[in-house]
Amino acid sequence: MIDFSDFYQIIAKNRLKHWLYTLPAQLGDWQKEHAHGDFPRWQRVLNKFPQQTTAHIELKDKVSIGKAEEMPEGERKKIESLLRHLHPWRKGPFDVYGINIDTEWRSDWKWERIRNHISPLKHRYVLDVGCGSGYHMWRMLGDDAEFVVGIDPSTLFLMQFEAIRNFANNDQRVHLLPLGIQELPKLRAFDTVFSMGVLYHRRSPMDHLIQLKEQLHKGGELVLETLVVDGDENQVLVPAGRYGKMPNVWFLPSTAALKLWLEKVGFVDVRIVDIDVTSTKEQRSTSWMTHESLEDYLDPNDNSKTVEGLPAPKRAVLIAINPD
């Protein structure tokens, strides 16, 4: 079982202590519901990792933990084999004692596109919604965030995060909880909330934006990244079937429409800071993620379209302030 007691003890002493009224019961239910399937196998993998500590942790410009020479070659090979049992690795890359976890996404590229547009994270409490295995959470720490909480309902992502944290000296400034945003109370406690790659998976995008707003205190900043299409403020694509082979894509607005949505639910100072067409160099299959990837989702004769004939993935980043 995953032990969340350290997290409870930490938030009991900080601005998130009111979360303790609901969180332990929620996570207790999660423990019961996930005590089957692949969970025991992944738990056995976690239990086999050595309790290694290192003074060599780099989070500012990459996520690099330990050096190869700190560990015998045989031990490194064993750890790499265990890490590969947590396949597929989608968000990264990570370097763990010289083991390069070459993930499907070059998530570092996205971070570099947004980091100069957001408010400095120093001393901030940060929530990362749909955080995946937690790559960006480590980069947030690298940019001096005080406390980082990630939420993602995927059990595998939780296991991958715990594997990385095990080697990062069990850092208690960063935690991942297996929850969705709809399960959070109105905490109104975070300085910065990130929602990256989530909005298009939500059946009700406006509700998602409201839920994000409810996690921010007055003056807090939202960093929103999602798939978009070209067009004016009335342009929204609703795929009739799949989008890029994904069945759970509901709404792809234009950037102008997305800005309007944010303003409509009460955000102010809304800025469009980046628009980028996703490339097959940024998202691709690797030995750490051997399933299909972006190349397989695009029309082989016209990479400006998906296999369904819809506009190829284009992502925008918007930043907005909660005035309430």
TrEMBL record:
Name of the protein this chain belongs to: tRNA U34 carboxymethyltransferase
UniProt KW keywords: Transferase, tRNA processing
Sample GO molecular function, one term: methyltransferase activity
Residues at which carboxy-S-adenosyl-L-methionine binds: K91, W105, K110, G130, D152, P153, S154, M196, Y200, R315
InterPro entries per the UniProt record, alphabetical: CmoB, Mo5U34_MeTrfas-like, SAM-dependent_MTases_sf
Provenance organism: Agarivorans albus MKT 106
Pfam families: Methyltransf_9 (PF08003)
Upper taxonomic lineage: Bacteria, Pseudomonadati, Pseudomonadota, Gammaproteobacteria, Alteromonadales
Role according to the record: Catalyzes carboxymethyl transfer from carboxy-S-adenosyl-L-methionine (Cx-SAM) to 5-hydroxyuridine (ho5U) to form 5-carboxymethoxyuridine (cmo5U) at position 34 in tRNAs.
This enzyme's EC code(s): 2.5.1.-
Recorded family membership: Belongs to the class I-like SAM-binding methyltransferase superfamily. CmoB family.
GO biological process, any: tRNA wobble uridine modification
Subunit organization: Homotetramer.
Gene3D superfamilies from the UniProt entry: Vaccinia Virus protein VP39
Domain of life: Bacteria
Catalytic reactions of this protein: carboxy-S-adenosyl-L-methionine + 5-hydroxyuridine(34) in tRNA = 5-carboxymethoxyuridine(34) in tRNA + S-adenosyl-L-homocysteine + H(+)
